[in-house]
Write a structure and sequence with these properties.
The structure is a homodimer of 555-residue chains. With 555 residues, the first copy, chain A, is an alpha/beta fold. In chain A, 30% of the residues lie in helices and 25% in strands. The model of chain A has no long low-confidence stretch (mean pLDDT 96).
């Protein structure tokens, strides 16, 4: 019996939807050669990560084992799968493999960070394979809401493992490859050790619908519209962008792309040949001379992002274009949980302009990119793995998917971020628990989610901030009165006197009563001033601010 | 022709869902006698109002006309209708009228604020009426998700106006009065000048379902459960609380109420007799000695509120009770848009415990308290008003409802907060635009939403905070170096040196170069130090912090 083992370790994406990062390893324990599948980001929000620019997986474990990493494979070009490759290239220095569309997007990111183009290798499609260390890896096409999404077929000395990537079962996806059951059956015919499988839509009970069902409905809607039509969707959903553009063109409208991502994705799809025909596009500045009933705008910002084209149009002009009463705005998209407020804000702003907004509540103008429960079962039945490990889901999704697997006679393994699974032999087992977490890109700095930086910002948002300044002379005696500056706090409270005056008065009294021992001790002074200010504020305004105490001693 | 006029003025609730406050007036322009219908609150969120405790309508306009206010009428006891009565009692000093259940809840609030019990008058039900100034007002029962919800029948010299309050068309609401079409037809038989109408569910195309449809499904679910069952709903939905409790009792389970609001609402319903039979309830401490499969807990926190019972159970023990693998948690509720993150957090925490969570995605365990589009039409058809003014909705709801009214041959008036409508004569018209807005209860202080206080807190949350301290001697020469304290910012940036050191060095250089004129001028010093720190931070960490500059001059 070999002492080598095959391991699976999610560092992101298992226990959340976002920042996917999965590690596979083979070798003697602690000496495994490693590959990484996907290196994505998640997006911050005001609730939990105010001011943060991007959320990245914590890859400390990988960095410490950098010499053992053979390669990074990227399944597809969504931000939650490819978004971190450039941010972590310096840290990992591993070659990156992706198919041509994904590689095109990845290289654009690498260029922005000044990394070399040849760090990204364009991989061919199955049956081509790449051998890196003990792994032989192939990109097996699977349909999703972006071109060239692929499952990874990972051949190891312990057998073949399939990492599904994000997928749906779509036989007519428009742009990109349809799901090919025959090809999949062929790949899986000798038995699959484990399927690591997308879990996003495990709670959706009905079979998913094909991208192709949308075209006729969208054409009907656009054909009947009387004013300008503006539609938003994820720019990376090239098939959808094309469906929308085609509907516009067929209604005799000129197509305009608004928002950087929209142009970038269409360019990448044309450059790489994954899309060959797209209606002619006119520039925003040329749109102004065209009657609005002859215009079809495709814009970014389906999730209500404040800086994207949709939100800007909702606030007023964007690139010289303005929406008006009688225009139509179409969300050919679903609102991701957590983004409701931003989307609703836009809808109400359009309502104030007299713009009619159509969203997906009718179910006619959007289909999901992920496999619903019956479609997950279709993949299970084609792959027939011994072991099923759910990924790409919150805990509730993983748990439900693992239960489904068990109910169908597979071994279901609920593995969350940091749980290293040993897949060798016949029964998978937890090999180790790795400390994982989130890294925040904050401005240009990477900080740990638990470093306390963001916690302090949240506290200031909740409680406001006060600065107390005290100057002591060379005899440790206060020189003048303590000085208070406030930010994010009301000007007056209970007593109607200026809050600053009330606080300064209370601090002054405390300072006058403080003994020489306290006055000599910075820590005691700091602690006493802080406590006094917080108590005084509590009495006056019912809040305890965050406090910065500055003690200056003349020397 | 009379020079008197009848006016309608929404101060809250028209252009948002929450903080309802509607004014009716009759008299000579500028001298109208006024009544207020509802005085509610809205709830803050981290996105837009971090640290705020409650959002109240801005009632400056009313305060300035306090001597003209005859009374405040409260349609029902939901927080967005009654929540502000105690907060504004001192400001308005107007008598408050409500039916007995609503009055019971209102008096509890008044007591907490030390206001007199008799400020709230218990009103009888239609055909009883109260005459206040030129208005004669009656409480006409209408079904909703709380007992004794009522429409206001407002008789004026210009005719009869109906203010629907929140409602659904429910002939079998469980607790509380069913909608009575015959009574409504009788009230409306002589013609209705205007219907001011709930718009919440105008986008829901199917007829609403009755509260009574839920009992059998909930009984089935609870009957089949093997562990402890915990269910959450709005505590004020007394009918639902009873349905849940009855299902527990029928399954042989002891019922426990967890969370203050749950106990308060059941007490109020029993005290006022709107509910006469409720299963016996045991105390949380007694529950510990009962096998978990014999327990049914009804808990607060259906919206994922962090301090409510649901969230506390999801984090661990609450009042000695702990959920375990095999227990069932039921959301007999809908997640209000914007609360998704909190609810999903709880579901995942329960998933980690092995607790099965059932929510309303099946449509079996919750019905809305608001009239769907066909039910709105039912009310329109019963009331047959000349004018329909949509209320209780965001702009998109009001606009859609006004369009619906116009399509049905009524005059639809889209009136948002601050828009005073003159309802006299035959054609309603905008009489005036009043400045309105939101008042924040922040700790114990009321501040204006646009005062800048919360804006500063949001900026600190996004950008962090830096304090710069400089001491100048009597000759206006810097004494020592500038001093920097940071909060909510990373410790190091691009150069890897401590951020504080980098900032202090740059500030020091700027200060050394500053001329005597700058050093003498507090504003110039302040401005220069702030700009220098922000630029230096931008270079080092890619962020511009909020800055407090403290300049101390020795004298």
């Amino acid at each position: 019996m070999s002492s080598e083992r095959l391991i699976y370790l999610p560092l992101g994406g298992a226990g959340e939807i976002g920042m996917n990062a999965y590690v596979y390893g083979y070798g003697k324990p602690g000496k495994e050669r490693l590959i990484v599948v996907d290196l994505g980001v998640a997006f911050p929000d005001m609730d939990g990560s105010p001011g943060v620019d991007l959320i990245l997986p914590d890859i400390t474990w990988l960095k410490d084992r950098r010499d053992r990493i053979e390669a990074v494979f990227v399944t597809h070009a969504h931000e939650d799968h490819v978004g971190a490759v450039a941010h972590y290239y310096d840290a990992l220095r591993a070659p990156i493999y992706a198919r041509k569309f994904t590689a095109n997007i990845a290289r654009r990111k690498m260029n922005e960070h000044g990394h070399p183009n040849d760090a990204v290798t364009t991989a061919g499609v199955w049956p081509e394979q790449v051998t890196v260390g003990p792994f032989t890896v192939g990109f097996l096409p699977i349909s999703h809401s972006i071109p060239e999404s692929s499952a990874m077929v990972i051949d190891t000395p312990e057998g073949r493992v399939i990492h599904s990537g994000d997928f749906k079962i779509d036989l007519t996806p428009g742009v990109g490859e349809p799901f090919d059951p025959g090809l999949w059956a062929e790949v899986c015919k000798d038995g699959i050790k484990a399927l690591i499988c997308d879990s996003t839509n495990v709670f959706s009970p009905l079979p998913g619908r094909s991208e192709a069902t949308l075209g006729p409905e969208i054409e009907k809607l656009v054909g009947a519209a009387e004013g300008m039509v503006v539609a938003t969707t994820f720019a990376s959903n090239v098939a959808r962008v094309k469906t929308l553009a085609d509907a516009g063109a067929r209604a005799g409208r000129s197509v305009v792309l608004l928002g950087r991502a929209m142009k970038r994705m269409v360019d990448a799809a044309l450059e790489t040949g994954v899309m060959t025909d797209f209606p002619p596009v006119i520039a925003p500045e040329d749109a102004r001379s065209i009657p609005r009933e002859n215009l079809m705008l495709l814009v970014t910002g389906s999730q209500g992002e404040r800086r994207a084209a949709s939100a800007q149009l909702a606030r007023g002009k964007y690139q010289g274009i303005e929406m008006k009463e009688g225009d139509l705005f179409l969300f050919s998209s679903k609102t991701i949980p957590g983004n409701e407020r931003g989307v609703i804000r836009i809808i109400n702003q359009f309502s104030e302009m007299g713009v009619d907004v159509v969203d997906d509540s009718s179910g006619l103008y959007h289909v999901s990119g992920h496999a619903n429960r019956p479609d997950l079962e279709t993949l299970h039945d084609v792959v027939k793995p011994q072991v099923l490990i759910p990924m790409h889901g919150e805990h509730r999704h993983l748990r439900e998917h693992a239960k489904l697997a068990e109910a169908k006679g597979m071994t279901g393994v609920l593995a969350v971020n940091g749980m290293m699974i040993d897949l060798s032999g016949n029964a998978p087992k937890v090999a180790e628990y790795i400390e994982t977490g989130r890294t925040y890109l904050d401005g240009t700095v990477k900080i740990g989610a638990l470093d306390g930086v963001v916690r302090d910002r949240i506290r200031m948002a909740l409680n406001g901030h006060a600065t107390v300044t005290v100057i002591l002379d060379t005899d440790d005696e206060p020189l003048g009165e303590p000085w208070v500056d406030l930010m994010g706090l009301p000007e007056t409270g209970r007593s109607k006197a200026p809050l600053v005056d009330v606080l300064e008065e209370d601090l002054s009294q405390w300072l006058n009563r403080a003994g020489a021992k306290t006055l000599r001790d910075d820590d005691k002074l700091n602690e006493g001033l802080k406590r006094t200010l917080r108590q005084s504020a509590m009495d006056e305004i019912g809040k305890k601010p965050e406090v910065t105490v500055v003690v200056s001693r003349l020397s």
